[in-house]
Design a protein that fits this description.
The chain is built from 9 helices and 13 strands. The protein has 316 residues and is an alpha/beta fold. It has a 7-stranded mixed sheet. Helix 1 crosses helix 9 and helix 5 runs parallel beside helix 7.
Length: 316
């Protein structure tokens, strides 16, 4: 029986991972006393006993945890941003290619993707990989996301009940220095040479996320209509269990003419929409997912399933 340890169990992602792990009869959970969770010696014991470790920690704490691992058989899935662009770590987004999935299956060090980054890369990578979009294409994107991605402190601000809560009265664009922490992985794993102009927006929903990429089709490397782009994506993701390309120009998949960004909540799904206006040479690629599911804990469990040789969708 494989042993699993979650370092950082009290955080939002850690709790969701633990909830999923509780469904596995094939795994044994290693636990640490609450008052010793910051003790390096006690943490090192737990880390080195485990076959699989989930790190649900801030970047510096994740790096410290990795330094404590001396057992060559311990495999790590890190949910922080610390190793998402590191050359000796595998990026945990198996849907990108057969080689990506194979690398995760064999790796001992997997970095779990960020929520915005997951939706962005799923939206941009097929175009770059298919040489439809040049690596220096001037991309912009916007992400509308639930507030749970900000962790406990932000959740408390949104859910305070004092009669007047300025946090929840309207959506709030943020990261206005245009240097969001997900940008390096978004560039690297989408295959881009230039950083997109990325503006995320916090909504008044607990979870649920949609990343939107507007495309000027006349600037693409190949002449493509929005329907052509849809066909490309349909072929690229046709065998994926968790990534679905939604039907083209079908109003029945919309909610009163709009996209419901919460429709993938409580799943590990990512759903991709392509909208277009060929007379204006324009298209929009929109990917929605649960920022706590495919954008965090669900992806971590999916990666663990691959690494341990389980069915990829087990308990997902």
């Amino acid at each position: 029986m494989k042993k699993v340890f979650v370092d950082g169990l009290s955080g939002t992602t850690g709790l969701k991972i633990h909830e999923r792990l509780s469904l596995y009869s094939e795994l044994e959970m290693i636990t640490i006393d609450y008052d010793k969770r910051r003790d390096p010696e006690e943490r090192a014991k737990c880390l080195n006993k485990a076959d699989i470790v989930f790190l649900c920690l801030p970047d510096d704490a994740a790096k410290e945890a990795v330094s404590l691992v001396t057992n060559p058989n311990t495999r790590i899935i890190d949910a922080s941003t610390a190793y998402r662009t590191a050359k000796d770590w595998t990026y945990g987004l198996p849907e990108l290619s057969i080689n990506h999935r194979k690398a995760i299956l064999e790796s001992k060090r997997v970095s779990n993707p960020g929520c915005h980054a997951t939706a962005f890369i799923l939206s941009a990578h097929p175009l770059v990989a298919g040489k439809v979009m040049s690596p220096d294409y001037p991309l912009t994107c916007q992400s509308l996301t639930g507030y749970s991605g900000g962790g406990k402190a932000l959740i408390d601000k949104y859910e305070q009940n004092d009669g007047k809560n300025d946090y929840s009265k309207a959506p709030r664009p943020y990261s206005l220095t245009l240097s969001h922490k997900h940008l390096p992985e978004m560039m690297l794993h989408a295959g881009l040479e230039e950083a997109p102009v990325f503006v995320p927006v916090l909504g008044n929903n607990y979870k649920g996320l949609a990343v939107m990429l507007p495309i000027h089709t006349k600037l693409l490397s190949k002449q493509m209509t929005a329907k052509n782009i849809h066909e490309l994506f349909g072929e690229y993701y046709q065998n994926e269990k968790f990534v679905k390309v939604m039907p083209y120009a079908d109003d029945s998949i919309l909610f009163d003419g709009a996209v419901d960004i919460t429709a993938c909540n409580d799943t590990n799904k990512a759903e991709i929409f392509i909208f277009g206006n060929d007379s204006k040479s324009s298209a929009v690629i929109m990917t929605r997912l649960d920022n706590l599911g495919k954008g965090a804990s669900g992806a971590a469990i999916q990666n663990m399933n691959l690494m341990l040789g389980f069915e990829e969708d087990l308990h997902l």
